[in-house]
Amino acid sequence: MSEILRINLSDPLYQKERELRNNILLRPLGIPDFGWEMYDHKAWHFVAMEGAVLIGCVLLVPLDAKLARAQLMQMAVDTNYQGKGVGKALIQALLSFARSKKIKEIEIHSRAKVSTFYESFGFHIYGEEFEEVGIRHQLLKMSLLSN
Ligand SMILES: CC(C)(COP(=O)(O)OP(=O)(O)OC[C@H]1O[C@@H](n2cnc3c(N)ncnc32)[C@H](O)[C@@H]1OP(=O)(O)O)[C@@H](O)C(=O)NCCC(=O)NCCS
Predict the structure, then answer these.
(1) Does domain 3-107 have CATH number 3.55.40.20?
(2) How many other C-beta atoms are found inside a 10 Å radius of the C-beta of residue 131?
């Protein structure tokens, strides 16, 4: 059973998070290591731990000063641990935290092939598909006001 932690950039686990993102998100798309960290300083970082091993992560980035909207990004689970509920635990922790911050709406630029993963938590697709970092993406969002 994995444990979900919220960390900041001074935590040694942040370096493990960066490695996981390189392995799972960036290298398969040919993006240079550490090439998608422009929002890290203002994001909340959630990591999944199996003992001392970091096996998953996701970021929540506020989109405005009043925290009305935020964006979920950089969602990744170690290949050896996918399909075991780790992603689900990360999303649930992120949503619980977002509600505690009274964030009203969360959006995602999802890789089109994993949109159904996010839909299972109540996110819905809107707008047109688009290309980002060379692959098809969809916009999803969810209002937290009625949940
Ligand atoms: C997508 C990803 C984060 C899901 O994490 P995970 O730990 O494998 O997912 P879970 O085991 O928690 O699955 C939760 C539910 O989503 C479903 N699911 C998992 N991966 C899915 C996918 N790629 N597409 C559709 N549904 C998926 C599972 O079947 C499960 O459903 P259930 O609760 O009815 O059994 C993970 O597979 C991953 O890191 N993929 C590679 C990187 C990536 O694509 N990140 C997303 C960028 S937008």
Answers:
(1) no
(2) 9
CA distances from 133 to 29, 32, 98, 130 (A): 7, 11, 27, 10
> Is 78 strand, coil or helix?
coil
Q: Please tell me the distance between residue 65's alpha carbon and the centre of ligand 1 in angstroms.
A: 31
CA angle 67, 112, 83 (to 5 degrees): 90
Q: Tens-digit pLDDT profile for the chain (147 aa)? A: 789 999 999 999 999 999 999 999 999 999 999 999 999 999 999 999 999 999 999 999 999 998 899 999 999 999 999 999 999 999 999 999 999 999 999 999 999 999 999 999 999 999 999 998 889 999 999 999 865
d(CA 15, CA 25): 15
* 20, 80 contact by CB (below 8 A): no
To test ligand 1's pocket by mutation, which of 117, 125, 141 has the most ligand atoms within 8 angstroms of CB?
117
What are the start-end ranges of the E strands in 26-134?
44-50, 53-62, 69-77, 105-111, 124-132
**Mutational test site, ligand 1, from 47, 54, 88, max ligand atoms within 8 Å of CB:** 88
